[in-house]
Amino acid sequence: MNHRTTEAQDTPPAPAPRPVPKHVHATRWVAALAALTALVASGMLIAPHVVGSSFCAPGAGCDVVAKSSFSRILGVPVAYLGAIAYAIGLAAVSAPGHTSRKLAPAVGGVAIVSALSFLYLQKFVIGAWCIFCVVVDLSSIVFGAALIAEWLATRPHTTPRHPFFPTPIAISGVLAVSLPVFAATKRPPPPPVRTLEVAVGKQDGKLVLREFVDLECPYCRATHQVLREKLKARPDIVVERHHVPLPRHRYAHEAAVAACCASEQGAEERFIDAVVDQDVDPTAPFCRGVVEKLGLDVAKFDACVTSDRPTKRLAASKALLDKTGFVGLPTVDLEGERSLGLLDDAHAEAFLGRHR
């Protein structure tokens, strides 16, 4: 019997697995550290929901973001969803097998797109930066880039993917998100509403809402817009406004002086409305232009600006805020309660609703 063998019948040997390049391990380390960093920041964002104590100061950027409508998805805090996402991300880093590697670019791409989306919302929609959110977002970009880099470095994917310290990474992940929450329990929780030692009195039988503002402060401007709408349905409340320009705001003092002078012509509310409704720095020329558009007496306005009357009013407002306990702006007092930080629709409704 003749046995003939042809080249077509030969089965070529399977390609030998490529050795794992050292830089592939480096990409997994980078991805793991980025995910752990994001979990730490997520833990700091989760803390207010778990223990009621926050790492954010009232009125600070993270406080503004936390009170925005973008802080929840279908009623679930984004901080919770972020922690879950990074727990999955750590699993993707440590998991073995070719399937996990093939999924790496998809996981990394989602992480990068999500991070860029949240950065866009903070910059262009919410108008405030949350430092912890920024840490999460930047970590997301690094995490996603590292996973994609690993995938590219191992093409055509004949390099074996071994387990990557699964137990230490899992323990680190739990500690990363839980330690900030535990640390928050040691912080005194700053209540969003404080009790005033001396309650704000009434005026002609109406409640007096005492508002301390800085017209360059974006949170003060947003709070004014919300209160303006809410107070339309509350004729039983009158506003007592105090201008407290913060030194770090370049044009705040000029705007405060202009508001005081507009007040002398009975147009303070209209002036402030015109200023806060425009996303423009309240420079002296801009404020003077608002005065002209409102049809006020410009000569009287100019005379007021150069007088000492606005300075005296601002000094009295600053003294009152210091006396009652300055923390930050915006500050709103109503009867015996003080609200600190940005008031969005829901918080303003609740705050005003407690006073009838």
Notes on the protein architecture:
The chain is an alpha+beta fold. It has two domains: 163 residues, VKOR domain (de novo design (two linked rop proteins), Up-down Bundle); 161 residues, Glutaredoxin. It contains 13 helices and eight strands. Strands 3, 4, 5, 6, 7 and 8 form a six-stranded mixed sheet that branches. It has a two-stranded antiparallel ribbon with strand order 1-2. Helix 3 runs antiparallel to helix 6, helix 8 packs antiparallel against helix 9 and helix 8 runs parallel beside helix 10. It starts with 21 loop residues before the first helix and ends with a helix.
Overview features:
Glutaredoxin, alpha+beta, de novo design (two linked rop proteins), 56% helix, 356 residues
Topology (elements, then pairings):
Elements: H1 22-51, H2 61-66, E1 72-73, E2 76-77, H3 78-94, H4 98-126, H5 131-153, H6 166-184, E3 193-195, E4 202-203, E5 206-213, H7 218-230, E6 237-243, H8 252-263, H9 268-276, H10 284-293, H11 298-305, H12 309-324, E7 331-334, E8 337-340, H13 345-353
Parallel strand pairs: 5-6
Antiparallel strand pairs: 1-2, 3-8, 4-5, 5-7, 7-8
Helix pairs in contact: 1-3, 1-5, 1-6, 3-6, 4-5, 8-9, 8-10, 8-11, 8-12
